[in-house]
Amino acid sequence: MAAYAVCVRDEQVLLARWVAGDGTRRWTLPGGGMDHGEDPYDTVVREVLEETGYAVEPVTLLGVDSVRRSYPRRLGARADFHGLRVVYEGRITGGSLRNEVGGSTDMAAWHPLSAVADLDHVELVDSGLRLWRERPRNGHLGRGAGPA
């Protein structure tokens, strides 16, 4: 379980650059994994501050993004990963932009919405922006979703 924020202002979206275990760097929504017993609302507030330096207010629950992946493990085994990502619309309420030190991201920046497609980014960015734009009644981008 993880929680993320879609923070848009002046036609720009706030993104954090995630550093994978192999050193690959890709842009993602600010946010991350929930600590045991932590509420998703508190998670997104904590994670946005850690990754970007901004205080954020989650103003709308946009939906839940569900992802399932299979990838190779040692000794020929395969991992079956299932992630649930709670996505909020976030409003910046304070702080100042800075990069995370010693975490899973190395940079935070505002990007024009019109330029996101050209960025090297994870699919969560597309899902989050689609939730933000479409605001499906049921918080789901799949079958049956529609405008509120």
Could you write a compact summary of the structure shown?
The chain has 148 residues and is of the alpha+beta class.
List its salient traits:
globular; 148 residues; single chain; alpha+beta; 4-stranded antiparallel sheet; Nucleoside Triphosphate Pyrophosphohydrolase
Could you say how many structural domains there are in total? 1
CATH topology: Nucleoside Triphosphate Pyrophosphohydrolase
Uncertain residue ranges:
144-148
Give the name of the CATH architecture. Answer: Alpha-Beta Complex
In percent terms, what proportion of residues is strand? over 45%
| Rg on CA atoms, Å | 15 Å
Shape: globular
Number of strands: 8
Structure classification: alpha+beta
**Strands across the major sheet, in which order?**
5-1-7-6
Number of helices: 2
Q: Give the biggest beta sheet.
A: 4 strands, mixed
List SSEs in N-to-C order.
Answer: EEEEEHEEEH
| Mean pLDDT across every amino acid position | 93
- Within CATH, the superfamily carries the name Nucleoside Triphosphate Pyrophosphohydrolase
| Beginning-to-end CA distance, first to last residue | 25 Å
CATH level-1 class:
Alpha Beta
Helical residue percent band: 10-25%
